[in-house]
Amino acid sequence: MAYGQTWGGVTEFKGTCIQLYPSDRPDTDFPYKIYEDGKSFRFSTFFYTIKLKSGINVPRFWLCYSVGWNVAYCETCWLFANRQYAYYQDSWVNRINDWRHISSKIDKHESSVQHIDARKNRSNWEKNLTIDKNVEHQYTIEINYWRNVLKRIIKIILSLTAGNTALRGHEHKDNQGKLSSPGNFLQLVYLLAEFDPIMSELLNDEKNKNKYLSWKIQNELIDILASSTRNLLCEDIKRSKWFSINMDSTLDITKTDQVKHGAKNYEQLTTNVILELGLDINMCRGQGYDGAAVINGFYSGLQKRIKDKVPTASYIHCCAHNLNLVVSDAVKSNQKVHSRAPRWATLAFGEGNANKIKQTVLKKVCSTRWESRHVSVYALKCKKRRKKYCKYSKK
């Protein structure tokens, strides 16, 4: 039931009061009320029950007493009475403290139409509450089931990505439309389903069409995990207060840099990323980049622009890039390796075979598609066949 919605004249707030707070039925030393004639009367626990003709005492659950106000009231009418009723009386809703005539007032109110209707509304509401509890229990079971499913899916994704293993390969389908090569992710799901009852139920339940195993769900989970990891790192950085920047760009599949060249573009990118992560650039105390002029330029490079904003952000040439330059210079000192033939071929097969390999261009290997390795090698094989055919044709 939505907040503010009424059911039988009771709001969700009042329904919460019934569930969380017990009725006010104290057993204490009730104070006396002195009337004008000098007589004094007070409330008694005797009124909490009614004695039937058969001699059985039946509790009046509707009757409550407020110690602070020294008044009696009807909890059922306060919560469930119909305020639109033509003969609505608010005396028992607000307060009753006429202890001299309390007995007759209780009997009269107990037999009133307003009170009887309020009791009916309360009874129907309590029955409906029981139904809601059963529905809520079913929802809880279903929520726990899907939570366990997602836990297993996330564990599989983390296991594959931790080893830098592709989740999906080239998914072949046979004549019946079934996947003959489902990829690493689905293979692990099928393997786990052989031993885990939850994953087995997920795969074998024909009525349930939602499996949460599609590539879109995989990508969404990866994005969520990445975002969560990034937030944890940012929280750690904020607790540490100070931080350093280490930035580099990569080439896409077309061998085009993903960042536009220019110190201003790099500065804008770095500043935007820091703002998106909720960090304060004034807390930056270090910078580490490669040796490109657009980055480490003394007059207008990225490091100079950042240092103009934050003078305490000292720049240090990245040690990893320095090591790469040292290795490159060391290789250039060897004439055999310094040739334009592929370096790996020269080192692995010698200069003779390297010259042959140099004449062959390999296709790029995709890191997430295992079949591309076969395509790359197959292209090399086809080129070798074409060379043999041309050689025989010339003869």
Q: How would you sum up this structure, described in words?
A:
This protein has four domains: 32-127, no CATH class; 136-223, no CATH class; 241-317, Nucleotidyltransferase, domain 5, CATH 3.30.420; 341-393, no CATH class. It contains 16 helices and eleven strands. It has helices spanning 12-20, 75-80, 91-94, 102-110, 113-162, 184-193, 197-204, 215-240, 263-276, 293-296, 302-309, 319-332, 335-338, 343-349, 351-358, 371-394, and strands at residues 6-7, 10-11, 33-34, 40-41, 49-51, 57-59, 63-66, 71-74, 243-246, 284-289, 314-317. Helix 6 packs across helix 7 (197-204). The termini are far apart.
Query: Could you describe the largest sheet, including whether it forms a barrel?
Result: 3 strands, parallel
Q: Outline, from the CA principal axes?
A: elongated
Radius of gyration: 40 Å
Query: How many beta-strand segments?
Result: 11
Give the helix/strand class.
Answer: mainly alpha
Order of strands across the widest beta sheet?
9-10-11
Total separate domains: 4
SSE run:
EEHEEEEEEHHHHHHHEHEHHEHHHHH
**Uncertain runs with pLDDT below 50, 5 residues or more?**
1-10
Distance between the termini: 90 Å
Proportion of residues in extended strands: 5-15%
What is the overall number of helices? 16
Helix content: 40-55%
Average pLDDT taken over every residue: 78
